[in-house]
Specification:
mainly alpha, 247 residues, 10 helices, single chain
């Protein structure tokens, strides 16, 4: 019971973050779900629930999607899921947990540093493709592909409304590709939850989305992002420590 309670809490907070900031479900909930389950099924659960979360947000934001950029990012991130899924399948549990925690911490720290530098990079196909490829590898290996996209958005000063809207179908596509790739390498990758537990997980997702909808206009995006990054860093650090302790 305590484990499923913490799983539900992680899903709820992740869904709340997704609705308020446009992304963050995997960043917030991913490290904790890996801790509570294991590196393979924890990431697959992030992908499954994150897919539904993105679909719900996309239904309200599709008009602001930048379709040209989405196409390049979707293709390259799909390619990146193949080596990422192989990496997750081939590595032992403890090193993979350490890797997932390190990816989250380093990616978030890099985004913060880059955001303060103030340098703007030109928008081009090569930069978009590189961002998509890196995100695909990260998403399949750790369930966290968002930091690669957000780093690109910070570097190119991508307008927040368009960026948040474009992320929804993109992260949904990346999640589908990650699930397919993981199951192809390991048929036992799907989390072993009972029907009642799955229903509770999606109820927690719905609750996070609803409360996020009600509070999105009252919470400044900057404040929400700081909270998201703080929680994600804590989860990433805990996953890193657990992985290192198991080596």
């Amino acid at each position: 019971m305590p484990v499923i309670t913490f799983i539900l809490l992680a899903v709820f907070v992740g869904a709340l973050s997704q609705r308020v900031t446009g992304m963050g479900f995997a960043l917030v909930s991913g490290p904790f779900l890996v801790l509570l389950l294991d590196p393979i099924s924890g990431v697959v659960l992030v992908n499954i629930v994150g897919l539904v979360s993105c679909a719900v947000v996309f239904a309200r934001t599709w008009r602001d999607v930048h379709w040209g950029t989405l196409k390049i990012l979707a293709i390259t991130s799909a390619i990146g899921t193949i080596p990422g899924a192989w990496l997750a399948w081939a590595m032992p549990t403890a090193p993979l947990q350490a890797l997932i925690g390190a990816i989250v911490v380093i990616a978030l720290a890099t985004s913060i540093v880059i955001g303060r530098v103030g340098k703007v990079l030109p928008v081009n196909t090569g930069g978009i493709a590189t961002s998509g490829l890196v995100a695909g590898v990260m998403n399949a290996a750790s369930g966290v592909g968002g930091p690669a996209f957000s780093t690109y958005a910070v570097l190119t000063r991508w307008e927040q409304r368009s960026f948040a809207a474009t992320m929804q179908p993109l992260l949904a596509i990346a999640s589908v590709m990650s699930i397919i790739a993981k199951v192809a390498f390991d048929r036992t990758a799907i989390p072993h939850l009972g029907l009642g537990q799955w229903l509770m997980v999606f109820a927690a997702l719905a609750a996070g989305q609803i409360i996020g909808e009600l509070t999105a206009e009252r919470i400044p995006v900057k404040v929400a992002r700081v909270g998201m990054i703080t929680i994600a860093l804590a989860g990433g650090a805990a996953t890193l420590v657990k992985g290192l302790a198991g080596l």
